[in-house]
Amino acid sequence: MLRRNFSAFSPLEQTIFYFCDRVRRKVQATSDIGMQNKDIYTVSRLNSEVRMVLEQQFQRIWLQGEVSNFVAAASGHWYFSLKDSGAQVKVAMFRQSNRMASIKPQNGQQVLIKARISVYEPRGEYQLLAELLEDAGSGALQLQFEQVKARLLAEGFLASERKRPLPAMIQRLGVVTSPTGAAIRDILTVLKRRAPGMQVIIYPSLVQGASAAGQLCQALSLAYQRNEVDAIIIGRGGGSLEDLWCFNDEQLARLVAKSPVPIVSAVGHEIDVTISDFVADIRAATPSAAAELVSSDQLHLLERLQRLQRALVQAQRQQLQRFAPKVAQLAQRLQARHPSRQLQQQQQRLDELGSQLLRRLQQRLQQLALQQASLSRQLSALSPAKKLQQHQQQLAQQQRLLGRAMQQRLQQQQQRWQLLLARLDTVSPLATLARGYSISFDEQNQVITNSAALEKGQLVHTKLAQGSFVARVTATER
């Protein structure tokens, strides 16, 4: 039944039908084996396997629709429904993805998302997990660019008075870019030619894609935290508007504006302009131009180094001439109080102290040996083994005495009981009965001791030494 007109269904419906058919066949197969071999699903297991089938069957898809029921949770995650005129589907966009989103969706807004199909297992709900979100309207990127630029301009981040010049001598340069892109190769080529002594520290990051802005922020934050460079170049080579869009990220722009060292923005080509160019201290047309800005010509540096070297030599000579008399005076004082003399006295004192320490240690060892011998003798005299042996002998003797006393006591009690039994037998009514006597009882089981208590015709029970009998009274005598 599930296979009828199967090609007419959507891929999602085909997957669900395929999974249901597989479950039905498995249940049917286990039913034929017997009740004891049934593979019974739990709800949690069913939802888990449905989720795995959907996630394995479908790759990431692009979907366009209208936002409704948008909720920004306290955890930072976004939840909303994406609908069109005939249906809707629930969407979840987690914090690590939505913080890279270029917009925050509003109810009624048309958006384009890239998402994975999954199942929320606790409620068994089919949903989409969004990874990218864009405004589906025309000119959305340009509109967003202008909005970010206007906000930064209003807050003063684009003001010219906050721009800082580059240091006169940059010894360490930080570069935030892709470690495998053309931009880093151009920068290193220029620096090798113009400033081979400059140390370059690369803070690697993606420079294109949904996660590029976040990685750029992380790389800049790492550079600020380590505080090891004199200036920073951030940028990449040319590309389309979408390729360069990560450099228009507002969070990245604010981070660039708060840099503790001057920043050069070198994004794309001459005609490319990004938000990072506006907030950086200096904008370079290309990464190569940025490398030229941060480096001085090698010949100029060499001339300056030679001048500084000559000045240093002259200053050293003057210092030597000024300190020469003082050095001679200190040499004479040192000769009078040569360290070797002090060392000899200290060595002799050390030998004396060592000998004293050795003697005291030997004396202490002898005292401890005597104490140990004395304690060993005391321990041997007070050894618990001897006392234990004495107590064991005493215990064995007491056990023997106790056994004999118990035997004697038992014999005495047996003799006493035999005597008491003999006495009891003499006064026992059974013995009397054995000599030919009998005991009679009335109907109330009372012993009859007087014939006057009997009436004619009354039943009397008589007990003999061997058995008993019942008689009826015909006559009585006093």
From TrEMBL:
Species assigned in the record: Alkalimonas amylolytica
Gene Ontology cellular component terms for the protein in this record: cytoplasm; exodeoxyribonuclease VII complex
Subcellular location: Cytoplasm
Keywords associated with the record: Coiled coil, Cytoplasm, Exonuclease, Hydrolase, Nuclease
Function: Bidirectionally degrades single-stranded DNA into large acid-insoluble oligonucleotides, which are then degraded further into small acid-soluble oligonucleotides.
Pfam (any one): Exonuc_VII_L
The protein's name in its UniProt record: Exodeoxyribonuclease 7 large subunit
Subunit structure and binding partners: Heterooligomer composed of large and small subunits.
Domain OB-fold nucleic acid binding: 41-132
Entry annotated with the keyword Aminoacyl-tRNA synthetase: no
Molecular function (Gene Ontology), one example: nucleic acid binding
